[in-house]
Amino acid sequence: MSKGTINVQTENIFPIIKKFLYSDHEIFLRELVSNAVDATQKLKFFSSTGDFKGELGDLKIEVILDPENKTLTIKDKGIGMTSEEIDKYINQIAFSGAEEFVQKYKGKEGADQIIGHFGLGFYSSFMVAEKVQIKTLSFKEGSQAVQWESNGDPTYEISDIEKNDRGTEIVLHISEDSKEFLEKGRIQGILDKYCKFLPVEIQFGTSTTWVEDPSGEKDENGNPKRVEKEVENIVNNPNPAWSKSPSDLKQEDYDAFYRELYPMSFDQPLFHIHLNVDYPFNLTGILYFPRLKEHVEVQKNKIQLYSNQVFITDSVEEIVPEFLTLLHGVIDSPDIPLNVSRSYLQSDSNVKKISSYITKKVADKLNEMYKNDPKDFETKWDDLKIFVEYGMLSDDKFYDKAEKFALLKNTKGEYANLSDYIEKIKPLQTDKDEKTIILYTPNAEEHHHFVEKAQERGYDVAILDSPLSPHWISKLESKLEKVSFARVDSDSIEKIIDKGEEIPSKLSKEEEDELKPVFESNVNKEKFMVQFESLSETDAPILVTQSEFMRRMQEQQRLGGNAGMFGAFPETYNLTINSNHPLIGLIKDTKTEKKRNKLAKQAIDLALLSQGMLKGKDLTEFVSRSIELIK
Ligand code: ADP
Ligand code: MG
Predict the structure, then answer these.
(1) Distance CA 85, CA 92 (A)
(2) Sheet of strand 483-487: strand arrangement
(3) Residue 547 contacts residue 502 (beta carbons within 8 Å)
């Protein structure tokens, strides 16, 4: 036996490790199990190169809980270590890594977040154990099995032991204040979280299942009797879908993997993208498009980040652009530096490359889907549009690609991509200033009257009804030349798309001035601006509209934009009187003041009614007045 002091500069680092890494103690298990996986993978590698000529045998890793003796053991059949290797890898190198970490992050805020990204490695076991033993036998021929033992003094003891099977056992003597790690459920939970897709089978105890009675006995109905059977509890799937080649996978496999990833989720994803790069960085993964509809739900199925199948985190905001965090699935890359802080991560050039790679992949996939089967893509559009809008708003590279597959749907249910749509409407919907106007409505039902008037002129009305639409419209207007958007109820259609063709007015200036107070006295003057316009006779007698500008200002205010800057924006509307409509002529010619007022009020109410703005008492009065007028 020999004794020694672990190579440290800091007096006693262990209390610091314990204190600091408080909230993330559980990662010790991830570290030890992934070390066991590494050791196993190395052995497989040596076997393939001929450096190891023995039998590989069953390479399963075992996690063994012994609450009575207060130990937790991680046992592998990997390469093991000689006493020289223990000295090199455990006494010297491993510790300096841990020490560096503690030095660097001592007292820094968020240190416990960083630890999740940091391979503190073997020494993280001292967060939960008062004593740690390594019992190991190297795969090298003629090796002597050794035991290393330390209670984190930081002294250690090394001795030769009897051990006949190749590999390493790490025995943790769990300390009093970490008793939770002697509970089966707790350990199972950690394994589920971090080890679910590790590439080597991991067994944790046994579980019971029901199997057919091996004796062939039948029950009263003649069916084979079923009996309980203890089976190994394997916690992981060593070959998750993303580690396979896309050509080996069918749609069912992707669906099944989605359920494996999110067992609590009942949704079916829309489609997926299989990522696979090996240059200039390594990255694999599967991203799923959820069905978003109009709700951007609080993200329950987050993208999970793995490094060589070891779970790292499910907060990937630093690695993928924000709009892509709406997606579900996994990304696995050993090239994402995990031993750095989060703010550093964003400026890392590899991470930037990964992020733009993923963005490009997603855009290419959408483009390809649209090109290959536009009809099918259209059926998915309602679920996709929020995502695409969000992407176009937040990422210019994505925007450029998305112009080809961002669709506009019109009130007739027809779809076209942005560039085709603009080409299609250009001949008719371009005004005297050569601006092409995209007419839109968030709700064709509510704007039925306006939509119909637009359609009478052969114009097209697009439906823009997502919560992001207002932002998206502004973005498009800033990007597209000579194109602007106007909500279909923002003015009379002649004014929205002004062709410069004046219709002569049937009312003189004097007549208008005389009539104006008649209408004004019948509305709230603060809210409604009365104005005359010479529209066609077939247009409505009165239109209630809200200018595009006013409405946008109000929307901004609601979204908390420019609110304070101009003070509160009152809700105001234009009451446009069609000077050419026969009804307006009739009102003008009505001599009795009472009757004139009644007619004016009725005409205003009709306009409000067609806009869904006539409610409560006003509506009741309108109904009785109508009955009276019919009589
Ligand atoms: P890292 O895994 O990042 O190298 P660790 O602190 O986790 O750092 O481990 C230090 C070293 O100890 C490993 O690189 C490896 O050489 C050795 N080691 C740890 N666990 C095992 C094991 N189960 N079998 C063989 N070697 C191991
Ligand atoms: Mg390690």
Answers:
(1) 10
(2) 415-417, 407-410, 461-463, 436-441, 483-487
(3) no
CATH code of the region 241-375: 3.30.230.80
Cα 502 to Cα 319: distance, rounded to the nearest angstrom: 57
Q: How far apart are CA 490 and CA 493, in angstroms?
A: 8
Domains 2-205 and 509-630 share a fold: no
The amino acid occupying position 268 is Q
Write the DSSP assignment of 428-482 as a string of letters: TSB-TTS-EEEEEES-TTTTHHHHHHHHHTT--EEE--STTHHHHHHHHHHHSTT
Phi, psi of 272 (to 5 degrees): -135, 165
DSSP string, 342-395: HHHHHH-HHHHHHHHHHHHHHHHHHHHHHHH-HHHHHHHHHHHHHHHHHHHHH-
Helix axes of 548-558 and 469-479: crossing angle, nearest 10 degrees: 120
Are 320 and 389 contacting, i.e. CB atoms less than 8 angstroms apart? no
Q: Assess whether the C-beta atom of 89 lies below 6 angstroms from ligand 1.
A: yes
The residues spanned by each domain of the chain are 2-205, 241-375, 406-496, 509-630
Tens-digit pLDDT profile for residues 47-95: 999 999 999 999 999 999 999 999 999 999 999 999 999 998 888 766 6
Q: How far is the CA of 121 from the centre of ligand 2 (A)?
A: 4
- Report the amino acid identity of residue 114: I
**Protein residue closest via CA to atom 19 of ligand 1:** 35
Residue 119, SS3?
Answer: coil
The CATH class that applies to domain 2-205 reads: alpha beta
Cβ atoms < 10 Å from Cβ of 5: 11
Selection from 96, 42, 29, 97 nearest residue 310 by Cα = 29
Ligand 1 atom nearest to CA at 119? 3
Nearest CA-CA partner of 241 in 362, 369, 330, 365 = 330
Here the tokens at position 83 are: 């006493």
Residues facing 171 on adjacent strands: 73, 133
Report whether 44 contacts 196 (CB < 8 A): no
Q: Which of 89, 115, 120, 132 to mutate to test the pocket of ligand 1 (most atoms within 8 A of CB)?
A: 89
CB distance 171 to ligand 1 below 6 Å: no
Per-residue pLDDT of 15-56, as tens digits, reads 666 665 555 788 899 989 999 999 999 999 999 999 999 999
Q: Which residues contact 361 (CB under 8 A, 6 or more apart)?
A: 273, 275
**Cβ distance 170 to 72 under 8 Å?**
no
- 533-556 per-position pLDDT tens digit: 998 888 889 999 998 888 888 877
- For 406-496, which CATH class? alpha beta
| Average confidence score pLDDT of the chain | 87
Residues in the chain: 631
Nearest to 6 by CA among 97, 127, 112: 97
What is the distance between the alpha carbons of residues 303 and 358, in angstroms, rounded to a whole number? 13
Q: 97 phi and psi, to 5 degrees? A: -65, -50
Yes or no: domain 509-630 corresponds to CATH 3.40.47.10: no
Count Cβ atoms within 10 A of the Cβ of residue 404 and give its class: 0-12 exposed, 13-18 middle, 19 or more buried: middle
CA distance 446 to 426: 26
